[in-house]
Amino acid sequence: MFRSIYIHFLFAVVLSLIVFFSSHSTNLVNTSLTRACIAFVVGWIIAYVFRYIWKLASANADTLLNETQSNDSNETEVYDSNVDSNKNETEVNNSNVNSNKEKAEANREFEAEEISRVVKEMMRSD
Questions:
Q1: What is the spatial distance between Cα 111 and Cα 105, in angstroms, rounded to a whole number?
Q2: 81-112 burial, b if ≥16 CB within 10 A, otherwise e?
Q3: So what's the pLDDT on residue 107?
Q4: Can you give the pTM of this predicted structure?
Q5: How many distinct structural domains can be found in the chain?
Q6: How many CB atoms lie within 10 A of CB 37?
Q7: Which of 42, 68, 123, 126 has the fewest CB atoms within 10 Å, measured from its CB?
Q8: Domain containing 27: what range?
Q9: CB of 18 closer than 8 Å to CB of 42
Q10: How many percent of the chain have pLDDT more than 90?
C-alpha cells in the first residue's frame, strides 16, 4: 500500500512542478500555485487510474497464462490424433505439387525454345 501511495505522490509532485514552473514565467505566484495544486490532484487521479488498469491487465494476463497452460496439455492430445489424418493429406498435396512442378518445367522449356526461335528470326532480319 505504501509503495502505491509513494508512486502516486511522486507522479503528482512531478506533474505539479512542471505546471508550476511553466506557469510561473507568465502568471503571478498565486495563480501558478493554484494551477500546481490542481495539477497535483489531477496527477494523483491519473496515476491511480493507470495503476488500477495495470492491476486489471496483470490479473487478466495471469489468468490467461494459467488457462493457456491447462489448454496446452489438452491440445497435445488432440494434436496427436490429428497428426495421422494430416499425414495422408500431406501425401496427396505433395503429389499435386510434384505434378505442378513438372508442368512448370515443361512450360519453361517450351518458352525457352520459342524465345530462341524469335531471337534467331530477329537476327536474320538484320
A1: 10
A2: eeeeeeeeeeeeeeeeeeeeeeeeeeeeeeee
A3: 62
A4: 0.47
A5: 1
A6: 13
A7: 126
A8: 2-125
A9: no
A10: 23
Q: Is the separation of the CB atoms in 51 and 9 below 8 Å?
A: no
Segment 54-98, tens digit of pLDDT: 888 777 766 766 666 665 555 555 455 555 555 555 555 556 666
Per the model's pLDDT, the better-predicted residue between 51 and 41 turns out to be: 41
What distances in angstroms separate CA 56 from CA 3, 51, 60, 77, one per listed residue? Answer: 18, 9, 6, 32
Report how far residue 90's alpha carbon sits from residue 83's, in angstroms, rounded to the nearest whole number: 10
Fill in the amino acid letter for 42.
V
What does the block give as the cell for 82? 490429428
Residues 6+ apart with CB under 8 A from 20: 32, 33, 35, 36, 39
Q: Region of 29 please: left (phi>0), alpha (psi -120 to 50) or beta.
A: alpha
